[in-house]
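Progress against Task 2.4 (sequence-to-structure conversion) is shown through the following example record, which the project officer requested during the mid-term review.
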Amino acid sequence: MTAPRASRHDERRRTFPALPPRPGPAGGTDFATSWWGNSWVESMEDSALDPARLQRGRAYAGRGHVDAITVTPGRVMAYVHGSRPRPYRTEIRLRTLGDDDWEDLLDAAAARPDHIAALLDKEMPHALAASADLLPTAGDLTPDCSCPDDGYPCKHAAALCYQTARLLDEDPFVLFLMRGRGEHEILADLTRRNATRSAAERGTAPPPMPTVDAATAMTPRTPRALPLPFPLPAGPGRPPVYPHTPGAPDPLALDLLATEAATRAHTFLTTGIDPVAGLTPWQDAVRLAAAHPGSGLTASTRALYRDLAAGTGHSPTDLARAVAAWRQGGLAGLTVLEDAWDPPAGPFDRARPALVAADFPHFRPWRNRLSAPSLQLRFGRDGLWYGYESDRDREDWWPRGTPDTDPVGALTALLGR
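Structure tokens generated for the chain above:
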């Protein structure tokens, strides 16, 4: 069973989430697994007046009828679900230890390093528990419940007692809290006692504990001004040269990624905006390939295109065409390549008369495109015209030229006039 986590509002109050139902028969034996958990159960069972109520309480606990358990000094409280819709408020009270009892208990723990180690491992040494009557005996536990049953204990109080034993299994410090002191309080006291004992054995006084008086701690302070930020570099730095080593990543890919990271970081530092944060993986792959410093399909470029295309589910030819579109117009150019749309009335309708007046009468419209043999103009959502070329009698269009707000200007750039 995973140790329950307590919601600790203060050192002497811990609330544990409801424990899950126990696997196996609800009325099985050995409800607790630790010797101290069984001792807790036995202290209730030895004083019970009705074994049948104990059996029903054990079944309630085993089926998870006990809600969150709150432990404070001298008291264990929870709501227990019975036969009625509204749960009953149930608690178990026990005596807290006096100061002298705590002194005996803590002295006994500090005198034995193995006791402290056992507690830190969530184990309860027999000798330590016996040094101050830490565990309850018959008659030490006083049950109380809002139900009408006057049994001693009623089945709801018995269920709470059994579930509390499961808490004790996982964390014996719960037992210390029932007796009056919290875990951190005990460990701090043991640390001080251990330091004092070690100093006494060395013949020196223990060093004073560092403290700050409350007035000093609460005095308002003016925080020191932060240092000025470092000046921004004029541009991104160049990455180192990566050697070509068998079995190592491709130097070209490393150089490309390092250059890309430096450029993005510099842009973010100077503008606060990541220019590629909104791109899809495919768009980012096209952008990376388009940023390659070489031109044409060299051996290194073919390898880059092959890997980027394979990683995005496209062919190298698809990627090469998309790179041409990106170099023509960036993300808008790539969108023009891939997106056929119906533009509203306006600039698109005025394009054909303008082309006819410039002696280009053979363009046919289809959606946002004007096509002629081996030439095409595409109207982008950004209001620019993009030129495309294809071999005659083929529909294999490739971006060419420079975008222009004027279709004639885009066509002139495409033809190189």
